[in-house]
Design a protein that fits this description.
Ferritin-like; mainly alpha; Ferritin_actino; Ferritin-like_SF; tRNA-(MS[2]IO[6]A)-hydroxylase MiaE-like protein; 2% strand
């Protein structure tokens, strides 16, 4: 029988952890968007956000099905990440509709970028699923349109939302780094092994630069100062 990367117990643990954290992240994204839809100022906005929430749940189902395919209980795979992800969302609970939109675009966007970076170290099938899950499903256009329109109507909102965006990036990066450090399997995946190169200091620097540039681009798209 042909060997695969999953025959390596350390690699299998890392891939399962990655799929587990992403599955729980998508499940909570669905919950938050459905909840935020209640704050929508118009019926059209409510319907748009509900549609995006449905897409997030579809992503969760894809990740859940991949875990089942690997012979893993999805609930067991997600459980280690419930406390840290819930804590992040508790610390960054939006106070209104616009803060919720910025969080979904900026905060979640940075965390997704980080996990995309990790996905470059996994097998092609898992990596393809991660990239597919994180492909823009219309969320960016919706958020940018609504936030820019609100700032055009009341320019003073720009300062408050910019501060909120900067807080989110700090919290999201800290949360993602903490999860990677707390899970030995993910830390080992990033560090590499004899036959699987990892990140050296220079590569870590380049990764942080990419994350920062992507965050700045999102803030600029919203009309906010990073």
């Amino acid at each position: 029988m042909e060997q695969t990367a999953f025959d390596d117990p350390a690699y299998r643990a890392a891939a399962v952890d990655l799929l587990g954290v992403l599955a729980y992240g998508e499940l909570t994204a669905f919950e938050r968007m459905a909840e935020d839809a209640k704050l929508a100022p118009t019926l059209d906005d409510k319907a748009e956000l509900a549609a995006l929430a449905t897409t997030e749940f579809g992503h969760f189902q894809r990740l859940r099905d991949r875990l089942v395919q690997l012979g893993v209980d999805p609930m067991d795979a997600m459980r280690p990440f419930v406390t840290p992800l819930d804590a992040f969302h508790d610390h960054t609970a939006p106070s209104d509709w616009l803060e919720g939109l910025v969080k979904a675009y900026v905060g979640d966007g940075l965390a997704n970028d980080f996990y995309r970076e990790i996905a470059s170290f996994v097998d092609a099938e898992t990596r393809g699923l991660v990239l597919e899950v994180f492909a823009d499903s219309g969320q960016a256009e919706f958020v940018v349109d609504r936030v820019r329109a609100a700032i055009d109507e009341d320019p003073k909102l720009g300062g408050r939302l910019a501060l909120w965006g900067r807080r989110l990036v700090g919290e999201a990066l800290s949360q993602a780094q903490r999860i990677a450090a707390d899970r030995d399997s993910l830390a080992a995946l990033l560090a590499g092994s004899v036959d699987r190169p990892g990140l050296d200091l220079a590569a870590i620097g380049r990764m942080l630069t990419r994350l920062t540039e992507a965050h700045t681009a999102r803030m600029t798209a919203l009309g906010l100062q990073a």
